[in-house]
Write a structure and sequence with these properties.
Structural class: alpha/beta
CATH architecture: 3-Layer(aba) Sandwich
Order of helices and strands: EEEHEHEHHHEHEHEEHH
Number of strands: 9
Helix content: 25-40%
CATH topology: Rossmann fold
Radius of gyration: 18 Å
CATH class: Alpha Beta
Strand order of the largest sheet: 5-6-7-3-8-9
Strand content: 15-25%
Length: 236
């Protein structure tokens, strides 16, 4: 599945996005990079149809209805009804897609949530809710996965487990668009990066592309500076 955004703008009382062009292609893992307020979440919202762009064009090779069946979404500000149980929420998701309980149970077990399948979502800890949101996003085996700060509120051990799992998905051909303030996560999972500032794209491409495009120089790492070093060089 392919999604192409061209000259995308989203205007509130100022530009949240300003002439953003990006192509989401199959088998590509994209990391959206930038400080708070740079437009990362707004871009995801526009791509999946939660927000309508003020101008610009979004093209895809499937209908919008088909898109919703082929994507999985974990949102930074996502929430669930306080009196819904995990299995009830997952049942609603499975009704509208191609997943099955056998696969979902393996996901729940992987993230230590299988024994809590009958628990209310409201009774989960912050980290457990984040892991559940990832399970929910993956339940229907999406072609394209959108993740917005998926490891927020997650402890160090579980954070490593999630990143390892995302790398396994990547190796299997899963397409991913993700944001994270943990730059090591983006560097571990993604092969393509979009640097955003004040709603505008400063540069996009592979790390090597961006080292040249953003004129990043590093005496300590002349061949391949880390994403964290590049971030500091661009945004300070």
């Amino acid at each position: 599945m392919r999604i192409e955004a061209k000259n995308l703008c989203r205007n509130y009382k100022g530009f949240a996005l300003n002439n953003v062009t990006l192509t989401v292609e199959p088998n590509r893992t994209i990391g959206l990079v930038g400080p708070n307020g740079s437009g990362k979440t707004t871009l995801i919202h526009c791509l999946i149809g939660i927000e309508k762009p003020s101008s610009g064009l979004i093209k895809m090779d499937v209908s919008r209805r088909t898109l919703y069946k082929k994507i999985g979404v974990q949102l930074q500000d996502g929430s669930y009804h306080s009196k819904i149980r995990l299995y009830e929420m997952l049942d609603l998701i499975l009704v509208n897609g191609d997943g099955n309980w056998a696969y979902v149970d393996t996901l729940l077990e992987k993230f230590n949530l299988l024994k809590k399948k009958k628990a209310y979502v409201s009774n989960l800890s912050g980290g457990e809710k984040q892991k559940f949101s990832l399970v929910a996003a993956l339940a229907n085996r999406p072609e394209l996965l959108f993740l917005d700060e998926v490891t927020s509120n997650v402890d160090q051990i579980n954070r490593k487990d999630i990143i390892q799992f995302l790398n396994e998905l990547k190796e299997s051909g899963q397409s991913i668009v993700m944001t994270s303030h943990y730059l090591d996560e983006l560097e571990a999972v993604c092969d393509y990066f979009v640097f955003l500032k004040d709603g505008e794209v400063l540069g996009q491409g592979t790390k090597n592309d961006l080292i040249k495009a953003l004129n990043v120089k590093s005496e300590m790492h002349p061949m391949s500076p880390s994403l964290e070093y590049m971030y500091e060089a661009v945004y300070r």
